[in-house]
Specification:
seven-stranded mixed beta sheet; 7 strands
């Protein structure tokens, strides 16, 4: 079991479930950032930027709460602080992530209503699209970070109008990028997956753990 807690800078229940399922000890810190794409921003760059911004926002929030003065924050980085309770300790490692669905370099986020969900599924019908997750790992003690994006190619079966309406009726579409959940009822929409399956769910676990190993995050790793 891990000896330390990983801070997850994401409100996604899917990411939390994926990490806890393989044994991570987690603390979730939600952040409120502007997720509007920049003009001309490509999907890969967009996910990496948002993952980094989420991680940095969580770091600022944790540090401001645990160590409100600059001297204490310097002490945390250098390890010159007395032991603190687990509730106050900001920990060392923060993971931020963001996932998008892209087709023809157009970002498909979470639909705002059923009509938009219907339009997204119609657009994905019978075609291949990309699911891209950007993730950033932050080492607070060494003031270092890693940033990466992983792409999975997903092909949908050709969907009839009635199939789309029936799927929307299950209620899975509204909080999912691209209006579908591959780990839920939406699995039957998917004809082929090329690449990381967990990436489509919300986090490429293999690549995340590889980055943690490379950055020396052995204290939070369960495997």
């Amino acid at each position: 079991m891990p000896s330390s807690t990983l801070t997850l800078a994401s409100a996604s229940p899917r990411r939390k479930e994926l990490l806890e399922r393989i044994g991570f000890s987690l603390r979730v810190v939600t952040t409120d950032i502007d997720e509007t794409p920049l003009p001309g921003e490509m999907p890969l760059d967009y996910t990496k930027r948002l993952a980094r911004e989420k991680g940095l926002a969580a770091m600022r929030r944790l540090m401001a709460t645990a160590y409100p003065d600059e001297k204490s924050r310097r002490g945390f980085v250098t390890g010159n602080l007395p032991a603190r309770g687990a509730q106050d300790d900001p920990g060392r490692w923060i993971l931020g992530a963001d996932t998008v669905v892209a087709i023809d370099d157009v970002l498909l986020g979470k639909p705002t209503d059923e009509q938009e969900a219907r339009e997204m599924l119609h657009r994905l019908s019978g075609r291949e699209h990309r699911v891209i997750t950007g993730f950033g790992l932050f080492d607070l003690r060494r003031n270092k970070e890693g940033l990466q994006a992983v792409t999975t190619f997903v092909r949908f079966k050709r969907l009839s109008r009635s199939e789309i309406d029936r799927y929307i009726g299950f209620g899975e579409s509204m909080d999912k990028a691209g209006a579908y959940a591959v780990q839920g009822v939406g699995a039957y929409l998917v004809e082929e997956v090329r690449g990381s399956y967990t990436n489509v769910v919300g986090l490429p676990l293999c690549q995340v753990i590889e980055m943690m190993q490379e950055m020396g995050a052995s204290d939070v790793l369960p495997v």
